[in-house]
Amino acid sequence: MKLENYNDISEYKEKLDLRRAVHLLRRIGFHPSIEQLNQIIGKTPQEAFSLIVGSSNELPEPSNSMKNWLNKLEEDPLDNLPLEIRFEIEGRLRSRYYEFINWWLDLMKNENFPYKEKFTLFLSSIWNIEFTYDTLALIPPPLLYRNNQTLRRLRFASYKQIAEEITLDGSMLLYQSLFYSSKRGPNENFMRELLELFTMGIADLETGKANYTEGDIREGSRALTGWRTVAYLGQEGAPANRPFETFFAAQHHDTSGKKLFQYGEILPISNDDNNEDLVKEKEVKGLIDIIFKWRGNSIAKFISDKILRFYLYSNPAASNINIINQFANTMIENNFELLPVYQKLFTSELFYDDDFIGCQIKSPVEFIIGLERILDYDFDNISNGKTRSYLNSLEQVLYDPPNVSGWKGYRNWINTNTYPLRVKYAVEIINNISRKKIVDNFSKLGKYQNFDNFLDDFLIYLMPKELPNQRKIEIKSILLGNYLENDWLSKFNSQDEQLGENIRKALLRLVVTPDFQLC
Amino acid sequence: MKRRTFIKYTTIAGTGLALVPNILRTTENPIFVPNEKLLSDFDDNIIIFIELFGGNDGLNTIIPAEDDEYYKLRPNINIPIDIAIKINDIYFNPGLIDDVHNGGLGRMFEDGRLAIVEGIGYDQPNLSHFRSEDIWQSGINPKSNNNLKLLEGWLGRFLSLKLPDFPINIPEHPIAISLDGTTPLMFKSEKGDMGISLLDPFSFYQLGAGLMPKENLLEEDSYYTKEFNFVHTIATQSERYSNAVYNAYTKGKELINADIYSDNSLSQKMKLISSLIAGGLKTKVYFLKLSNFDFHAQQMNTGYTGGHYTLLNNLSRAISEFMDDALKLGYSERITGLTISEFGRRAYDNNSRGTDHGAASMQFIFGNDKFINGGYWNNRPRLDDLDINGNLKYQTDYRVIYAEILEKRFSATNEEIKKVFGEEFLPLNILEKRISKIKNYLRKINDNYLNVYPNPTFGKFFIEFELTKQSKVNLSIFNTNGKLKTNILSKNLEEGIYNIPCQIDDNGIYFISISVGNDRFTYKIIVNK
């Protein structure tokens, strides 16, 4: 049923069949391995969801080589250093950035339940950070890492808490210029994006009423003056021994009162009270409190809409305000926590409706990491940056989007430049797996006595929607090659690696179909 | 109607795809049609859009150096009068001229090949990069559509009108190309992308082989079908267009004057465009993006060079080098180019040696002096009359320029322009039509196609014109910002002399416009009670 026709979000209580299990796992994560799939088939969405998100909040460890630089400050390359030294430092920063991204990609590629990475990516694609910003500057990678772990830790938390913590996140302070903001010249960059991009949007999704004024931006900017992060070696005013931590520079803070959103007020503070703890409480948390108090409803709608686009259907023209409102209400009723909203989505009739299975254009990360997970791609190829360079060419450079509004997504991922590359990379990945590995991998689907049953499962696992008969026949013919069905099955059930080439050919045929780009 | 069938590739060298049995065959869709057949109105005009993303600081590009207010508002980043380069009363940022081929934009201005339009913007300026960029590319009127999601571009809408059977019928050569990894909103329409993205012709060609899907387009009405068909169209275009582009490029790159071009990326992209044009590609629109003009800080160093200077220098190089190459190759008359930017900068500088987001700004339009009316258009910026945010007010709606491009370069009718923008606009007449037919329809009276008297008037006046053959006539009055004030008549008229009584109640300057046979003539009237 089309989105416009939906009025209610009721719960889907049936046990998940293969197709719905794959659908759930493809959307909530980056394509399941067959083992993960097997754990979900036959469970209800409620049970499946609990298993997928888990309950622990353990965070992944950085790699050993990352540990060498996570607390290592470098000089600011742009601070009048001789060119050679500047380029040297920037070279180090770049290679650390690559290491960090490779680390994250590896987490995505290898993750098991509980799935964490797509939820982290979702938040990261709202609260964008650009590694290369302002034409020449680079964000120190230790700050990027800290930002990433914060988002991962807060992936299910209250959106309000996310806003509070990211406002003072070191990479964000640098990126959106709060690092330079002072009472003499408060910088409007972050405040504008906080409202426009990160919380509520320019206008309310339902009423069209403007959510904020230029005055709100100016007042909010004044409240956020004085915050810095320890980003560079020898940084003036930075406290010692607190590498990459955020700190408060009281002399730069505007202590006068601020008025925003008509009724919101931050009272002026005295010089005695102009310290880190109090200002954080009264003017950072206080500012976020005001924003959520007076625009909570708009924020809940804005973020719910983003969740629906990221996980359900990314077409911005397909939206139903009644549905958005229902998710928004769940968010508001739960103090802006994200977990209840996710739970509602992934256990809803809406989510498992046929109309929403297979309609999502895969983002580059979903496409490449998804395929690597299907084939259990080699770790080494990821660690030497090949996956990262694929994603760069496909226009999804993690932690370096084109601008602060992030990636436009939806059909923007696919054009005459990126489509041929997607096919090329898929072919390379498929050709890079040994035939033994292919067979071992797909044999996890089970043992079969009937070829058509195998074919059905094979295609459901790989493709977004059931293929028309004519196409099934073609794939069958490629898989069988010269074998008779029974012969083939007995080889498959005994994991004969010769079948690997046939399966490879079938995969190569499937990657040039339009539906292979969908999930 | 003859249908074209086309040949499918089943083996692809270099991509490792194995031979597949030809069980599936699509002979019915899509169909490639020669560009001339689809776009017979278009002749061979080419438009080049250069987007200056981030918000170009118009006040430091063309400098109001004789206005004291400029120095008061910008103590930290002004360009002093002795550093700016003066040409015919206009002060250029030196970046536009220093070391640039053939004297850069300064020389083009002197030669009449560059128009500078001051005060381009729109009502109720939006200071968000993304919203404003989308507004500029979508062609909407923010006043009436503030919350509307902007999903298609004005050019996409127009091309979608002209190609009703897209994507079943696809032009043989891409109509529009973006030299960028993504397709801009400007190209998008509800039928899909009306233009393609291109980075490198060689890899495009190699990668394009074998991509045409063997599956048919789907027909059900579902979300899945829509997305499937979208991908299908892109895949088809990828193969087909990669061939067309490659063939044009390999031919053209031997013909162009490659040495003219600087090393920077914008110049290299213009060089690629030149190769494609010289090689015979029938593409009509090229789009490039130059980032990043968003100088909240560090816009300028103490020597008046710095970030902004460099970007302007690169821009000037790219344009001058390209136009010189075009002239030498003989296709410069076909070219119309313009810069677009989502907004200007705030009139006063901030304390970080930069500026915040602004509103109205200036725009460059360039081409061959035969078909561009070069010079400085509109009034100098009013630095003493800023809006409540400290921004310049606009003089001309940004869509006026687009409407003029559609009218003069795409032969768009009034109705078509109205469908694209939702309203009518009066061109400034920066562009001259390459073939003007107005003289086929109107006979001059008192040396003008329109005789308007009395002028100036107290309010009442007559419009006289002589129609030499029966045709549809549209007679309208426009405001100075290009927007329609009144439509006087829009109907089929017999040949003859017409004398139409009119009245305007408000004082001011207005433009009377007569459109007949796809051509237009305008005449200025002053109302003074």
Give a written overview of the molecule:
- The complex is a heterodimer of chains A (519) and B (529).
- Chain A is mostly helical and 519 residues long.
- In chain A, 52% of the residues lie in helices and 3% in strands.
- Chain A contains 24 helices and six strands.
- In chain A, strand 1 (132-133) and strand 2 (137-138) form a beta hairpin.
- The longest helix of chain A has 36 residues, at 276-311.
- Chain B has 529 residues and is of the alpha/beta class.
- Chain B has eleven helices and 24 strands.
- Chain B has helices at residues 35-38, 68-73, 104-110, 129-138, 154-162, 201-208, 223-252, 265-278, 307-329, 398-409, 414-421; strands at 31-33, 46-52, 62-63, 85-87, 90-92, 114-121, 169-171, 176-178, 188-189, 192-193, 195-197, 285-290, 335-340, 361-367, 375-377, 396-397, 442-443, 451-453, 460-467, 471-478, 484-493, 496-503, 508-516, 519-527.
- In chain B, a hairpin with a 2-residue loop joins strand 4 and strand 5.
- The N and C termini of chain B lie far apart (61 Å).
- Mean pLDDT of chain B is 84; it is low at 1-28.
- Classes of the chains: A mainly alpha (519), B alpha/beta (529).
- Chains A and B meet through helix 10, helix 19, helix 22 and helix 24 of A and helix 4, strand 10, helix 6 and helix 7 of B.
